[in-house]
Amino acid sequence: MADLLDGLARYLAEQKLLDYDPTGRRGDTFIEAMPPQPDLAVSLALYDAGAPDARDDAEQRRLQVRTRGTADPRVSRARAEVLYRALHGAAGLELPDGTWLVLAAARATPAPLGPDSNGRHEHVVNFDLDVAGPTT
Asked: Domain residue spans in the chain?
């Protein structure tokens, strides 16, 4: 499967929901990292979804979307809500990397993580994804 996180980030950037630079040098969205700057930031990360089923052409993955805002918790919550609404229920999409997003389902609504060491609030929302890689 192509780079799923890159495909998701590019898709969300096409929707004008985040600013993604695949090189990681600018923008506000990062893959499996949350650098100290910029203040307003998004991190996309995959985590364990269990053993894959070899008889199923779709793979199950779990995605964490983490947002960081300002000292006002409403800023990061609002961004987490926008990303939640953009992904929850998304189905039948070919992502820019060629991966097929069969279905994205949120595990819950966005939840607060509290402020980071600089007082910037963070929120997180997790998704179950069914994805299929491009076929040769």
From this structure: 4-132
Instruction: Tell me the CATH architecture of domain 4-132.
Output: 2-Layer Sandwich (3.30)
pLDDT digits (tens, 9 = 90+) for 24-63: 889 999 999 999 999 999 999 998 766 666 556 678 899 9
Nearest residue to 134 via CA among 86, 101, 85: 101
Task: Find out whether 105 and 62 touch, Cβ atoms under 8 Å.
Answer: no
Q: How far is residue 95 from each of residues 16, 56, 98, measured CA to CA in Å?
A: 15, 20, 5
**DSSP 8-state assignment for residue 15:** T
Q: Which residues of 24-57 are buried (b: 16+ CB within 10 A; e: fewer)?
A: eeebbbbbeeeeeeeebbbbbbeeeeeeeeeeee
Measured distance CA(62)–CA(115) in Å, rounded? 24
Tokens of 1: 């499967």
